[in-house]
Automatic annotation (TrEMBL):
<dbReference type="InterPro" id="IPR000326">
    <property type="entry name" value="PAP2/HPO"/>
</dbReference>
<feature type="transmembrane region" description="Helical">
    <location>
        <begin position="202"/>
        <end position="223"/>
    </location>
</feature>
<feature type="compositionally biased region" description="Basic and acidic residues">
    <location>
        <begin position="54"/>
        <end position="63"/>
    </location>
</feature>
<dbReference type="InterPro" id="IPR036938">
    <property type="entry name" value="PAP2/HPO_sf"/>
</dbReference>
<keyword id="KW-1133">Transmembrane helix</keyword>
<dbReference type="Pfam" id="PF01569">
    <property type="entry name" value="PAP2"/>
</dbReference>
<protein>
    <recommendedName>
        <fullName>Phosphatidic acid phosphatase type 2/haloperoxidase domain-containing protein</fullName>
    </recommendedName>
</protein>
<keyword id="KW-0812">Transmembrane</keyword>
<feature type="compositionally biased region" description="Low complexity">
    <location>
        <begin position="42"/>
        <end position="51"/>
    </location>
</feature>
<feature type="transmembrane region" description="Helical">
    <location>
        <begin position="142"/>
        <end position="164"/>
    </location>
</feature>
<feature type="compositionally biased region" description="Polar residues">
    <location>
        <begin position="24"/>
        <end position="35"/>
    </location>
</feature>
<dbReference type="GO" id="GO:0042392">
    <property type="term" value="F:sphingosine-1-phosphate phosphatase activity"/>
</dbReference>
<feature type="domain" description="Phosphatidic acid phosphatase type 2/haloperoxidase">
    <location>
        <begin position="142"/>
        <end position="253"/>
    </location>
</feature>
<feature type="region of interest" description="Disordered">
    <location>
        <begin position="1"/>
        <end position="63"/>
    </location>
</feature>
<dbReference type="GO" id="GO:0005635">
    <property type="term" value="C:nuclear envelope"/>
</dbReference>
<keyword id="KW-0472">Membrane</keyword>
């Protein structure tokens, strides 16, 4: 027995695989580590869809940029937003004739009549009637240029309103005449623009007494205010309308049509070709 044991020991020593550096080759493959790693991978694959779902929920619950509060707003943005808030608040408070049940609802009809004096349709129709009955060259020249200013005012205001598309403080539906004059939106105020342009035009080209001149200026101001009282326009709409009316007057003065051009236009309009010969 001792001899057999000594022989087995010598064999183990002579076996190369029994050396320490080759001991790992004789050991069986450990499946515990692989089995432990596989569940980890499976768990990771299960966690990834859950994390993706959580990220999707977070993105869906995020508010749009315009609803989020800016932590560092600029001074310009703060000033503009503050002015817009004041404009909306003051315009709603001044809309005392917006409805018959408003605080000044009993004078709503009078305010509507005052606002109607600044509408585009009556001014265009009245200018055409005066033009057909005018016999002087100077009067026809003034009326043709006034018609040009009215058409310019209607087209410009309608274009700006179509671009801006601002609603009034009380969001009332426009009337049939407003649709005809393309005065559907709030900014800028067409009545205020027209009143400022017409008053400036008449003050420059008609000889009026001082009381009439004062009344004409007051009329233009009251027409603009009537639209605020009716809840149709904001304060900023009327202010920009006044500025736009003065701009229209300046443009018409720059491109003033002389008497000969006006007579040519009248001849074309009345189909009277005798002036061309």
């Amino acid at each position: 027995m001792p001899a057999n044991q000594s022989r087995s020991r010598t064999r183990d020593r002579n076996n190369v695989l029994n050396r320490p550096e080759f001991m790992s080759l004789n050991q069986p493959i450990r499946t515990n580590t692989s089995a432990a790693r596989r569940p980890m991978k499976h768990q990771q694959s299960q966690h990834q869809p859950a994390e993706q779902e959580q990220d999707g929920r977070r993105e869906s619950t995020k508010l749009p940029e315009e609803d989020c509060m800016q932590l560092n707003p600029s001074f310009k943005g703060i000033a503009i937003n503050s002015l817009l808030a004041i404009d909306i608040c003051m315009s709603k408070r001044l809309g005392v004739c917006a409805h018959t049940t408003s605080s000044w609802g009993n004078i709503r009809s009078m305010v509507n009549l005052l606002a109607f004096t600044g509408h585009g349709i009556p001014w265009i129709c009245g200018t055409l009637v005066c033009l057909t009955r005018s016999n002087t060259l100077a009067g026809q020249e003034v009326l043709i240029n006034l018609m040009l200013a009215l058409v310019l005012d209607v087209m410009t205001v309608a274009g700006v309103q179509k671009l801006v598309k601002r609603k009034g403080p009380w969001e009332m539906n426009p009337s049939f005449l407003d649709y005809l004059a393309m005065d559907v939106y709030s900014f800028p105020a067409a009545h205020a623009s027209r009143a400022a342009m017409v008053s400036k035009f008449l003050l420059a080209h008609l000889v009026l007494a001082v009381p009439l001149r004062i009344l004409l200026v007051m009329w233009a101001f009251l027409v603009g205010m009537s639209r605020i009282l009716l809840g149709r326009h904001h304060l900023s709409d009327v202010g920009c309308g006044f500025a736009l009316g003065f701009l229209h007057y300046s443009l018409v003065e720059m491109v003033w049509l002389p008497s000969s051009t006006c007579q040519t236009l009248i001849s074309i309009g009345t189909l009277s070709w005798s002036n061309f010969y």
